[in-house]
Amino acid sequence: MPPDLNLRISPRTVQRETVDKLRLAIFSGLFQPGSRLVESQLCSQLGISRPSLREALRSLEAERLIEIVPNRGPSIPALSWEVATAIYEVRELLEVEAAGRCALRISPEQLLKLEKSLSAFEEAASSNDSLAQVMTAADFYSIILANCGNPILEEVHRGLVARISFFRGRSMSLEGRAQSSLAEMREIFESIAAGDEKAARKASKQHVLKAKAAAKISMDNGI
Amino acid sequence: MPPDLNLRISPRTVQRETVDKLRLAIFSGLFQPGSRLVESQLCSQLGISRPSLREALRSLEAERLIEIVPNRGPSIPALSWEVATAIYEVRELLEVEAAGRCALRISPEQLLKLEKSLSAFEEAASSNDSLAQVMTAADFYSIILANCGNPILEEVHRGLVARISFFRGRSMSLEGRAQSSLAEMREIFESIAAGDEKAARKASKQHVLKAKAAAKISMDNGI
DNA sequence: GTCAAGCAGATTGTCTGACATTCTTGCAAT
DNA sequence: ATTGCAAGAATGTCAGACAATCTGCTTGAC
Fold first, then answer.
1. What is the DSSP letter of B69?
2. How far apart are the C-alpha atoms of B120 and B137, rounded to whole Å?
3. Where are the domains of chain B?
4. Which residue, B133, B113, B118, is CA-closest to B174?
5. What is the pLDDT of residues B23-59, one digit of tens each?
6. What is the CA A70 to C1' C10 distance in angstroms?
């Protein structure tokens, strides 16, 4: 038997279920940035007890998806452009590294999977469903991160991207952003498929920079 | 009044107090890797109730300082060398970037602070107090990270370093490691003081690589 | 004697209910 | 209009309870 194959299945506990639900709710923009989350309301909406909810909120707090100020309770943080910039910068660092490594080590099957996810994004890009666009694009990155050979890189990246999900939705709905995003992602894919590390890094960097610029525009316009 | 000067003082809640205490306990190696943390025991030791403890544990779980398996409860994860390697690799990525940026933008006062922390490490290095060595070394990095101009870089780095605190203590007690560490840190400091970004990056990279090598040795020897 | 089945104790997951402390808000008074 | 106060709402924390699950030990079968 393979030594560290993890056979243990994780029972779904109320806490986990709640974290997942709330995270999804935050991603899909159900809560306004800055708005407060009232425990009693969430409890009745989710049908769970306050201790369970509070555990879930602590998890989300540690992920920086919510803030909890003592005696004021949990709220959705309003992401400043300053912090968003910092996140995009670190994301660039990680994604560039991941794309470069991925180009050198991805397996044929995974490459096929990557191609498929690119097609899925292509389809979403021609539609106007910006949620589908964000989801399929996230798939594309996560395959790259999953194949960079460094699980920590993947983990940290996931945490960062989660925090800017707010911008991703908004900037995807910018005129033409989805299409140019598609072109950038295609270039990343081609570089990886060719096993060209340097090109993959370059394309990846370009992509993050443009995503950041798009986010900035959508922020300036939007609010 | 400056717009986002945060005047709010954070009352110390039981939850936060508990997280800090447990984190410190983990850092100082009070719990063996792999050992389980029994809630009822911790409650009576800390003098708090179970709900409060469980909230604290969820925070630590999200920081990856403990693991919580459903129906088995919390435990200290046994860090595999594979994961440790991955952490060191990402740490390298972040620290190199931070050192480079820091060289370009650190203020004179902060530079002085950095110099002082280097002296503190120097003193600790001549002693045999490996805890003091780890603490002062951590100070040194945290000043660099705090002056890189990117709070996210700092935050992510802190999270990663926390997870390898286990190794840091062990490798510092290796024969001669503290002294060579001192030499490496001094080189980083000199580069930053000179405002030489490239040298700072190079020195920083060297330092992480050697720290990683030392950790590997201490792991192979140690257990 | 070894191994499997099963039972008792320990531990966790979750809920209910409670209460002191702190925040918020609306109203009254200056 | 600003200040101060009081009522209501929300949070921080605890105690206790109970079902589900795990763990280790005893017992029984081969």
1. E
2. 9
3. 14-75, 81-222
4. B133
5. 999 988 899 999 999 999 999 999 999 999 999 999 9
6. 35
- Assess B99–A contact: CB distance below 8 Å, yes or no: no
Q: Which of A129, A131, A206, A189 is nearest to A165 (CA)?
A: A131
pLDDT 10s digits, A108-140: 999 999 999 999 999 999 988 888 899 999 999
Q: Is the distance between the Cβ of B76 and the closest atom of strand C smaller than 7 Å?
A: no
Rounded Cα distance between B122 and B144, Å, is 17
Residue B2's pLDDT is what? 40
User: Which one, of B150, B53, B44, lies nearest residue A92 by Cα?
Assistant: B150
Distances (CA, A) of B75 to A19, A103, B32, B46, B64: 20, 37, 9, 17, 11
CA distance B72 to chain A (A): 11
CATH superfamily to which A81-222 belongs: GntR ligand-binding domain-like (1.20.120.530)
Tokens of B18: 């508990």
B38 CB-to-strand C distance under 7 Å: yes
Going by C-alpha positions, the residue among A101, A78, A76, A86 that lies closest to residue A198 is A101
Beta bridge partners of A67: A75
Most B-contacting residue of A55, A66, A67, A89 (CB-CB within 10 A), to test interface: A55
Q: What is the ipTM of this complex?
A: 0.91
B20 touches chain A (CB under 8 A): no
Query: 1.10.10.10, 1.10.10.350, 3.30.420.250, 2.40.70.10: which CATH number matches A14-75?
Result: 1.10.10.10
Residues of B in contact with A13 (CB under 8 A): 70
Task: Note whether A120 contacts B: Cβ–Cβ < 8 A.
Answer: no
Structure tokens at A117: 């996810």
**Rounded to whole angstroms, how far apart are CA atoms A89 and A49?**
39
Q: Are A158 and A99 in contact (CB under 8 A)?
A: no
- In whole angstroms, give the CA distance from residue B168 to residue A122: 47
- The radius of gyration of chain A's CA atoms, rounded to the nearest angstrom, is 19
Other C-beta atoms closer than 10 Å to the C-beta of A20 total 12
Residue A113 CA to residue A143 CA, distance in Å, equals 8
**Closest by Cβ to A152, choosing from B4, B15, B86:** B86
Q: Is A160 on the interface with B (CB under 8 A)?
A: yes
| Domain B81-222 in the same topology as domain B14-75 | no
